[in-house]
């Protein structure tokens, strides 16, 4: 087991993202998260790019996942270099680019109705 190499890819795609305009029902807040696992010995520098149906991409979102750690990046909290957040009520897709191989998972908690909805999926890696 000592010779296990770090897993993952450098580019990941998440095609089905949506941050609802109505975000609360009870004690929970609707949100999305990009969960990153870095099993390597080097910190991962992440560039996050958003793509839309009817507008230009939003490109200047940055994050980090330290070596041999995980980072749950809340998309309702992340801001680009100009202070812009992710727009509410708009479908979008995400590309996560990393300087080192990482694993990426996406999850969404939807609290817009009384019955909570949680969706989670592994992102699609570029190979």
What would you say this structure looks like, in words?
- The protein has 127 residues and is mainly beta.
- It has a single domain (9-125), classed as TM1070-like (Hypothetical Protein Tm1070, Chain: A), CATH 2.60.290.
- Helices cover 0% and strands 57% of the residues.
- It is built from no helices and ten strands.
- Strands 1, 4, 5, 6, 7, 8, 9 and 10 form an eight-stranded antiparallel sheet that branches.
- The radius of gyration is 15 Å and the shape is globular.
Overview features:
single chain; 127 residues; mainly beta; Hypothetical Protein Tm1070, Chain: A; 8-stranded antiparallel beta sheet; two-stranded antiparallel sheet; 10 strands; globular
Straight-line N-to-C gap? 25 Å
Q: What overall geometry do the principal axes of the alpha carbons give?
A: globular
Q: Biggest β-sheet, characterized?
A: 8 strands, antiparallel
Number of domains: 1
Query: What is the SS-derived class?
Result: mainly beta
Helical content (DSSP H or I, runs of 4+): under 10%
DSSP strand count: 10
Topology order in helix (H) and strand (E) letters: EEEEEEEEEE
- CATH third-level topology: Hypothetical Protein Tm1070, Chain: A
| Count, helices | 0
| CATH architectural arrangement | Sandwich
Strand fraction equals: over 45%
Mean pLDDT: 86
Parts with pLDDT < 50 across at least 5 consecutive residues:
none
- Using only C-alpha atoms, the radius of gyration works out to 15 Å
Q: So what's the CATH class?
A: Mainly Beta
CATH H-level superfamily: TM1070-like
